[in-house]
Give the backbone structure.
Amino acid sequence: MQKSTLLATVAICGLVAFTPVVADDSAALLALRSQPAVSQDALAHEQQLQARHDYLKTTLKAGGLSKAEKKQMKADLKVVKKELKAVKKANKKAQKAYDKRLASLTKNLRKQYGMGPYPAEISNFVADKPEVLKPFYSSLFIEGERNATLNLNRLGLAAMEAGYYGHAEWAFDRAIDKIEAIYADNPQAKAAKSKFKEESVKDFKGEPYERAMAYYYRGLLYLRIGDYENARAVFRAGEYQDSVSDLEEFQADFAVLNYLDGWALQCQGRNGEEPFRRANEVRPNLAAPAPENNTLMISELGAGPQKIGEGKYNEILKFEKDERFGETNARFIVENRTGATTEFTNEIASSVYWQSSTRGGRPIDGLLEGKASFKETTDAIGDGLATVGTGVALAGLASGDSDAALIGAGVAIIGGIFSAVSASSKPQADTRMWDNLPDLVTVSTGAFRSVGEYRYSTVYSGPHGDIASPSEVYMMGGDDTCGIIWTRSRSALNVPESSPGARMTWKKMRKQKKRVQQKDMNFRNWLLVEAPIDTLQAELR
């Protein structure tokens, strides 16, 4: 399929899915807000009359006027005063009607949407965004601060594939800002760990592999423009994110980040032996590139891991491999101007699924078991105390021992409190996920005069041979020193508007605490000012 056709198809599908039905109240509210309560002409007229009124009064008070002048000014003042009173009354009436209409529209909308966003606000926000990215910007606007990092990552990857590199850089920069703020020991992060907060209510920050991938993509964008020092910095920061979870730290083992760190050093004319060695320790098949190789070819295969909740309370977060696609490797076909071709077989540098389901190279069964243990314990205590208390109370009543009956009743109440505490902890696993990630990241390198002098295609293969799959190059760049080619076997654009499990219902959104809704409103107001628009055009490859 041609790339332009693919983008158009995805854009149309996305628009069908995301375009809100603009309610009359919503559109009317936006129209009302865009207009002043009192017209500029009416306000100017009032100001002119007020100035004339004040001048006449001051002049009369100052004295020094002839009898005729004084008489004329008094007559003028009487006329101006009457007209000013009428204009002020009319303007006040207009303001009152405006406020009443505004309050009525807001009240009606808040019954359905809480503090927003309202349908017309969503439509207005995405109106100046690239067509193919509108579904991703829509989710970013609707889901607010809670899913900001998730939606910025999804948007960044989609924009990168579509060639809107300015949008991609903006999105990943903002996502990384939020990731690093969350891991700066701030109160929000602490609150999210509480056993008395439902896991899916906290602001999304991603599992270690998701956070690391945000840095990976930002680094690729730096490589595209030949900024090797910043590329190295984000690759190394991504390696750190791979080693940090909410409660523990592990040995970093994201081989592709080490490899890319070494590549950026080599492109600077420096020694990348150490990061290449670390990559090879994790992936023995991943050898350092030859010194003369100046072009990096990256191909991403398949789809990333799926998150599920398991256990009695869905408290255990587990990761499943997405088995829908069969590709396990990629070959780059490079054609020069004479039509001669050279084939490069990629090596697997990292598996995103492996990164999700291991910590420090060790397989894990699941996450959040600590919270489940807390719930099991309090349930057991509560049930036990309630049973004992009821038994003591009944025995006391039967024997006529009122003290025993009271004690038993008290124990039963305490047991009920423990059970209530257990029920309130709600330790459900957070299954929101970055759903347009790949599974395998594969690499190869070659020595070319200049990236732009060649034609590139990719052939994907699996256990049963080659697989028919889109093979266009999504990103090509670099400088005279080094080049980069980036492809994917599966489009990052071909996903639903909202990530699975990420979006709340309108009912749940409007029932959130006002401070939470206000935080989302503040985020949307920030987006209205800061989000890039369609002037950042897609770049030709």
Q: What stands out?
A: The radius of gyration is 32 Å. The longest strand covers residues 455-462. Residues 67-113 form the longest helix (47 residues).
